[in-house]
Design goal:
Oligomer: single chain
Largest sheet: 5 strands, parallel
Number of strands: 20
Bound molecules: iron/sulfur cluster
Helix content: 25-40%
Strand order of the largest sheet: 2-1-3-4-5
Number of helices: 13
Length: about 450
């Protein structure tokens, strides 16, 4: 009996060419990968799950930290060893020399969001099939995330110039998509079964600034390309809407009522990076931390359930013991729900490399441990207040031992989980009501009180 592959071979006259794909780096890079894959699938290419079955392998690299660059170089080396025909793209592709000096055998190198160039390079390596019957792409595009959640990229680039970051030089200044364009993509995703939309960009709160908040058409009415207007429109689609990479600018206050009303998830991902005004100045970060504490307090008055996630850097050049103690005190007062912490690492090409007073590695290490211990205490106390509450849980995975999901306060991959032990009568994408019965410093355990739906 003919298999699907045989049938496709007969239709095309030859097997569809297969592309292997390795996606490294942040959610923004993942969205780039999805765009490239969507385009390739639209042209009739197939994806290969392994190196051996691929006609060519695309590696989407990350160039943010030196450790990420090394990981990218290792991945390229592995793909070359296993397959031999490799195209490199993504952030690290902005520095072609750094790649070809280590791996001269790569077929092509393209930079971040150069979708057309990557696709052209794939055409050069293995020609696309031409067949009018090949229309394999669902209208919502193809996604690397599970079907029930998706990242929605609203802009590229960044107008800030944080001294430790080279993203603006890799990706350029802020370039927003029109609100109508974003909303049409969001609608397609929701129609295809996506239950949770994660809004991402380099600086979500700056959305539309480059377009002077121009209006575009959505559902026959004008919609401003502006943070609040987009959040409000997304909140009307009936899916969970989660906002990432938001800076505490005054206009962010406007979306908090949308969270209190349940239109947008009560969740803000704000990369604070530090609390000491002196360190923040050296980092060239937007926002002043003393006013930020006041702002957080007001947000919580309006929306008591608001969860704030953030990332911090310890051991930035010039960070003194006093600066670090100030950060710990700030952390104790801010009582953030989820926190990631990085030890400062110089990035080639970043302005911060010129700063004096590097912090010794052992001091960075010690500060990192103290920071994490402090936040664990905060997190344990905050999560303990959830015990006894009924909450909504979106299910991510189910097996014979039970289900694993997340609350409205948890983004996938980076935050905690909700365990529904011995409950396998649900499926990924279900949103259920459950009562929290236990908490530790990261996760919750709950028992379902509603039917799946
Ligand atoms: S806000 Fe700062 S850290 Fe974030 S992308 Fe822009 S320059 Fe880099």
């Amino acid at each position: 009996m003919a298999t699907d592959d045989d049938i496709r071979t007969i239709k095309l006259g030859r097997p569809a060419p297969k592309v292997g794909f390795v996606s490294l780096g942040c959610p923004k890079a993942l969205v780039d990968s999805e765009r490239i894959i969507t385009k390739l699938r639209a042209e009739g290419y197939e994806l290969s799950a392994d190196y051996a079955g691929a006609d060519v392998v695309v590696v989407n690299t990350c160039g943010f930290l030196d450790s990420a660059k090394q990981e990218s170089l290792d991945a390229i080396g592995e793909a070359l060893a296993e397959n031999g025909r490799v195209i490199v793209t993504g952030c690290m592709g902005g520095d072609k020399q750094a790649i070809t000096s280590v791996h001269p055998g790569v077929l092509a190198v393209t930079g971040p969001h150069q979708y057309e160039q990557v696709v052209e390079a794939v055409h050069g390596a293995v020609a696309p099939p031409h067949d009018p019957f090949v229309d394999l792409v669902p209208p919502e595009g193809l996604h690397l995330t599970p079907r029930h959640y998706a990242y929605l990229k609203i802009s590229e680039g960044c107008n800030n110039r944080c001294s430790f970051c080279i993203i603006p030089s890799l990706r350029g200044d802020l370039s927003s998509r029109s609100a109508g364009d974003v909303m049409r993509e969001a609608e397609r995703l929701v129609k295809a079964g996506v239950k949770e939309l994660m809004v991402i960009s380099q600086d979500t709160s700056a959305y539309g600034l480059d377009l002077k908040y121009a209006q575009s058409d959505w559902r026959g009415a004008p919609l401003k390309t502006r943070f609040f207007d987009l959040a409000q429109a997304l909140g009307s689609l009936g899916a969970w809407v989660r906002l990432h990479y938001v800076y505490p600018y005054p206009h962010v206050d406007d979306v908090i009522p949308l969270m209190a009303e349940g239109r947008v998830l009560p969740y803000l991902d704000i990369p604070f990076q530090h609390a000491s005004p002196k360190v923040l100045k050296a980092m060239r970060r937007p926002g002043a931390q003393d006013k930020t504490l006041e702002r957080i307090r007001r947000w919580r008055e309006i929306c008591p359930d608001l969860a704030i996630r953030s990332t911090f850097i310890v051991g930035f050049p010039g960070e003194t013991d006093e600066d670090f103690e100030l950060l710990l005190d700030w952390l104790g007062e801010a009582r953030l729900n989820r926190v990631g912490c990085f030890k400062y690492e110089p990035v080639e090409g970043a302005a911060a490399n010129a700063l004096d007073d590097a912090v010794p590695e052992e001091v960075k290490e010690e500060r990192w441990h103290r920071f994490m211990a402090k936040q664990q205490d905060v997190s344990r106390e905050v999560l303990a207040t959830r015990v006894g509450r009924e909450i909504d849980v979106i299910i991510d995975e189910v097996d014979e031992e039970g289900a694993l999901g997340r609350s409205v306060w948890d983004a996938p991959e980076i935050d905690g989980s909700v365990f529904l032990n011995e409950d396998s009568d649900v499926k990924a994408g279900d949103i259920v009501r459950a009562k929290v019965v236990h908490a530790d410093e990261y996760d919750l355990w709950a028992e379902r009180v509603s039917d799946p739906g």
